[in-house]
Amino acid sequence: MKLLLATVAAFAVISTISAAVRGKAPTKQLNDGNHIPSLGLGSFGFDEIRKMRQAVWDAVQAGYRHIDTAALYGNEVEIGKGIADVIKQGIVKREDLFITTKLWNDKHGRNQVVPALRESLQKLGLEYVDLYLIHSPEATDAQGNTIKVDVAETWQGMEEAKRLGLARSIGVSNFNIEQIDRIIKNSNFVPSVNQIEIHPSNTKEKEVADCFERGIVVVAYSPFGFFVSRAGGGNVVNRNDPKLLNIARKYNKSINQVILRYELDRDLIPIPKSTNPQRIAENINVFDFQLTPEEIGIVGSFNQNKSIFD
Ligand SMILES: NC(=O)c1ccc[n+]([C@@H]2O[C@H](COP(=O)([O-])OP(=O)(O)OC[C@H]3O[C@@H](n4cnc5c(N)ncnc54)[C@H](OP(=O)(O)O)[C@@H]3O)[C@@H](O)[C@H]2O)c1
Q1: Which atom of ligand 1 is nearest to the CA of 70?
Q2: Cα 264 from chain centroid (whole Å)
Q3: Tens of pLDDT along 131-147?
Q4: Each residue of 71-86: pLDDT tens digit?
Q5: Residue 20 · residue 92 · CB < 8 Å
Q6: CATH architecture of the domain with range 26-236+266-275
Q7: What is the pLDDT confidence band of residue 151, given thresholds at 50, 70 and 90?
Q8: 73 tagged catalytic
Q9: Which member of 64, 73, 221, 262 is catalytic?
Q10: Who is most buried in 39, 122, 139, 294, counting CB within 10 A?
Q11: Domain regions of the chain by residue span
Q12: What pLDDT score was predicted for residue 93?
């Protein structure tokens, strides 16, 4: 009997560990063969940098394996501390995590890319990132004045980062299809990801279809759009819309969970940001239901082609 109980207990521990290692979000294959978890933790918020270490801890505990940051956010050191904590505590290994960071606009010169990534890696305390993105197609000088740098030139620096093993996958953010095609025409590497703003008020069907046609995975930033109140106010969508409430009731989920599920069911990868442990857990608790095509249409009917970020 004792032996049986010990075996059952050991099995329970092993299955808990393997569930913890796998995380809650299934993965999607990128065009270079690597895999990206289909939901990640966003981290943008200049006034919440200090909270990010704990947020990474809470997120990994809740089953996240994908964290999104950027040189611009100023939080790579705190995120790195959070990553070190979960690895040191044996909750996950580095290879279980998928970490994205981004090249800022003032480092678009071909020879600036690898040094910029090395600086991010040093702050994160990592030897490589899983995904490095050009944050935006707009190049600036150090003072923030717009300058002309061909995106194809910046991409050569990105390729170098991949060749050196400093970034497992490379991609872009805020690029339109012409800019992506300019890269494809001048390179052997198609970007693996385009990270763009997508939510029910800005559904971007055409942009998504153009990316999918080229084998590019689309990461949806600001996935809640105007369904959460934002600094600057205005534009908040009525969360009490009866059609949305009906969907939420049907699945026993919150409106925010329905919105994330809408993006997942469109084959997008949402990266909701939260520093609140309950909401962090809520946002990844979306893999036990699926919307019908009709419900996807209802959530998408809030589209107004309206962006939060220019
Ligand atoms: N590539 C780019 O140019 C770009 C641009 C913007 C954003 N991003 C990335 O995308 C991430 C997400 O975008 P975002 O931060 O703009 O917006 P978001 O994730 O759509 O919304 C974040 C806001 O929603 C609140 N929230 C989170 N979960 C909630 C829930 N379950 N119920 C109610 N409120 C909830 C958060 O507050 P609490 O923290 O208090 O929960 C926060 O105020 C960013 O953090 C960043 O990593 C990339």
Answers
A1: 47
A2: 12
A3: 999 999 999 999 999 99
A4: 999 999 999 999 999 9
A5: yes
A6: Alpha-Beta Barrel (3.20)
A7: very high
A8: yes
A9: 73
A10: 39
A11: 26-236+266-275
A12: 97
